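Hi Y.,

Following your request, here is the sequence exactly as I used it, all 162 residues.
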Amino acid sequence: MKTIRLLFTALIACGFISCSHEEPLDNPEDNNQIEPHVLNDSFVNLRQIEDFASQVFPQTRGNGEHDFSINPIIGDNADTLMYIINFGEGDGWKIISADCRTPAIIAESEAGTFTLASENQSVRLWMDCIAQDLSVIRHSENEALIFSRDQIAANMAFWGRS
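Below is the corresponding structure, written out as tokens. Let me know if you'd prefer a different format.
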């Protein structure tokens, strides 16, 4: 079931637009959350992702800090496109969209970790395709998306927006 959901999500996301292979994603450690060149206010910021991760995985380390890591994925235009959240020591991961108009969870697993350093070229190509699709979405008005108004409203409601 998990594999089917991942495949279905991947097919939907890749269906937004056709993808072509371009320069690989950039992942600077310093993630500036101000993105004035985006057309809309649909950006999901790091604080929202931290709150989401805290609710999904409330376990903490001995020092009281939450036991998860968040890796923002930055596109060619310096846009944060998605976030990779790894929980605990191999306790699963989620890839979350940085645009609240799309479904929040792009992919997930209940075990293991996810890194961009994968030797699997198919995973890297899939991530590049998703990043390109999300970049187009981030710079598009609602009317240009393939989602209905109701779907966009439901996706935005997930993040507490109307």
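Residues 121-138 form the longest helix (18 residues).

Thanks again,
Q.
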